[in-house]
Design goal:
The chain is mostly helical. The protein has 14 helices and no strands. 66% of the residues lie in helices and 0% in strands. α9 packs antiparallel against α10, α10 (213-233) packs antiparallel against α11 and α11 runs antiparallel to α14 (382-408). 38% of the residues are buried. One of its GO terms (cellular component) is membrane.
């Protein structure tokens, strides 16, 4: 039992040692990269514990407090949730501490950018302590994580809309023929990809000889949305552009694919297993790395974006580089003593990482529905299917709203 109780401590300690070796090299400009590394380390730790910790968690009495021992899948899910809770608390505490920072003279600005050895130690201690809390705490966190993950997905959608509009505007403002041709090429490629991808989905998820009305509905709805985006964007009264519509169409097709591919492997309408081999550990690791990169990018990009809760004293232009930022601009100025405003909201930056911690736990546990699936499969089950298909529909609704809102409320500024 002593070995089991020290499992999280040993794993967190390994991650702590790796991070501490680089902590002294962290500068103000690379602080956001360091937070990314800490977050990525928590995801890797979650994955490792999910794969190997179940036999040891059996021997911890306050975790295995059942008359009849649950299956290994329950312990795998529990380990992931405990690491996620520790990571969530770390970033949530920082989000609360950073409320109200407006300029770099605030003492808390140094807390945000420095003290990395202490931060890593606190992060490791929080994760270890989460393996000492009773199961009821984890159950409550599991429920809250579903709502937090929904908020994170909503942030991702808003970020995508902001990105596509900025991309379109930047090329249109160049007012050169080559950029207009580039816009046209991107638009055509995106729409061709959407329709071709939808055709592949029909072949994979509507196999002959089976009644797959739900899958057909999902795919047809995706095609209808793609046409609707183009019609609304090209309407004379709508100040829209066809290029963002095409990019959103591809993204919706991708969400439809991820939703359908998350259907249980034994579901007769999931024909994906006929075109690919059974999920292997190497494929899971590759998928995990992809998840790490996408979640980390989303958290960092959202935290530094001027679209999201920029401090009142911060210039709207924000940082050109979302990872490194431009916080060192102004060096050598004559008025060096004047307080420089922070370039992004520290509170919102940490809040996004906290929500991303919840989201990553849901990914690794199949939205806590993985106990009925094979233990080696991640992010599979009907809960995942509906979460992702609803994300697609919310994406479509928000995009159409950005197009028609100026018509419905002409007195408001939506720029």
């Amino acid at each position: 039992m002593w070995c089991a109780s020290c499992l999280a401590s040993a794993c967190a300690g390994c991650a702590c040692n790796l991070c501490t070796s680089a902590a002294s090299a962290v500068t103000r400009r690379s602080a956001r990269l360091a937070y990314c590394g800490l977050f990525a380390a928590s995801l890797i730790l979650s994955f490792l514990l999910r794969q190997f910790a179940a036999p040891l968690l059996h021997h911890i009495p306050w975790i295995n407090a059942f008359e009849h021992t649950p299956p290994d899948e329950w312990f795998q899910m529990n380990a992931v949730l405990r690491v996620s809770l520790g990571n969530f608390l770390f970033f949530a505490i920082f989000a609360i501490m950073m409320i109200g920072i407006k300029d770099q003279n605030d003492r808390r600005d140094a807390w945000h950018h420095g003290g990395w050895i202490a931060k890593i130690a606190v992060w490791a201690v929080l994760i270890v302590l989460m393996f000492c809390v009773p199961n009821i705490v984890i159950t409550i966190y599991e429920v809250l994580s579903k709502f937090g993950s929904g908020l994170f997905l909503l942030v991702q959608v808003v970020m995508l809309l902001d990105f596509t509009n900025n991309w379109n505007d930047s090329w249109v403002e160049k007012d050169e023929q080559k950029w207009e041709i580039a816009l046209l090429v991107v638009t055509v490629v995106c729409y061709l990809s959407t329709f071709a991808f939808s055709g592949v989905l029909f072949m994979w998820f509507n196999p002959s000889g089976h009644e797959c009305g739900l899958n057909v509905f999902f795919i047809v709805m995706t095609l209808i949305l793609a046409f609707a985006f183009a019609i609304v964007a090209l309407h004379p009264q709508v100040n829209g552009s066809i290029m963002p519509a095409s990019v959103i169409s591809v993204y919706c097709a991708y969400l439809c694919y991820t939703s359908l591919s998350s259907e249980p492997d034994d579901y007769e309408c999931n024909g994906l297993h006929m075109h690919s081999k059974q999920v292997s550990l190497s494929a899971l690791i590759l998928g995990m790395l992809t998840t790490v990169l996408s979640v980390v990018y989303s958290a960092v990009r959202a935290g530094s974006s001027t679209t999201f809760l920029s401090p009142p004293s911060s210039p709207r232009s924000g940082a050109k580089n979302p990872l490194l930022g431009d916080e060192e601009t102004g060096k050598g100025d004559a008025k060096e003593s004047e307080p420089r405003p922070v370039s992004y909201s520290y509170t919102f930056f940490h809040l996004i990482f906290a929500l991303a911690s919840m989201y990553s736990a849901m990914l690794l546990t199949g939205w806590t529905s993985a106990t009925s699936e094979k233990s080696e499969l991640m992010d599979v089950g009907w809960t995942t299917v509906w979460v992702r298909i609803c994300t697609e529909w919310v994406t479509a609704a928000l995009y159409i709203w950005t197009l028609i809102a100026p018509l419905l409320f002409p007195d408001r500024d939506f720029s």
